[in-house]
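ok so I'm stuck.
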Amino acid sequence: MVVALATKRRTVVNLFRYLATGVLVVAALVAARYGWLVYVTSPWTRDGMVRVQVANVAPQISGQIVEVRASDNQHVRKGDILYVIEKFDFEVALENAKATILSREADLSVKKAQNARRAILTTLSTSIEEKQIFDGSAKMADAALLSAKAALAQADINLQRTEVRSPVDGYVTNLLMRVGDSARAGTPNVSVIDEHSYWIDAYFEETKIANIHVGDDVEATLLGYQTPVKGRIESITGGISAANAASSTQGLPNVDPVFTWVRLAQRIPVRIRIDQVPQNVPLVAGMTCSVSVVGGKQAPAPKQERGILDRLISRLG
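replied:
not stuck anymore, here's the structure
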């Protein structure tokens, strides 16, 4: 009797052990399936980078730099003077243009008076050809005055351009110029980071693009900071370059050999507009971050990725 009870008790204990083991196995498989789906299909990536627009400032005139009013990493406002080019030549050009205006105005006044006197004379006193000549001279003097006014406007704007100003609000970066350097028209020599143009480029695996939509809310955690930067998906790129698209010998496509049992997911660039930056988090172009989409709808996982775990769970259930 005692032996039978002991045997029955061991059987019940073993049954509970097997049952507990089965429950643990099923729970582990469920957790593994969930972890697999989160890793493969959830919209997140560690491959994010802060980007920014940089204004490359170039002078519109050439000359010697006589004053540098900005310093490296200095914050400037739109319209602030960055540096000054020698003004003397441009001031002289402006005064010459003003003198030319006076000369052209006097010449036009004389030509108009002469033309008016000839116009009232009869054909007995002067010929038609002579009247046409004086009328043409007056018109040419008028055109010369207009040209002089245009030259005056050009000289005035060139003088203003000796003061090179910042086109945006932001920070002067990598400033290498000094007083005495030569500025060349059209050649950039100062760079200003536009503080209003920061965005994030996040590179998501193609398996996660199905869960990403324009307008979804995003949180980006910069490396070294805990408080996330919040933003919104602005756009998804329309294409990336193909390594096998280049032509080789005889114009044939150059196709690289690959391991057919390994298929790496491509990374698709996604542009993120930054909406909110924590006060203790500085934005520096080139900083890396982890990006998670928090406001989108998750699509179901592909069948080929979830089929094995589903079959195992169904058999154990």
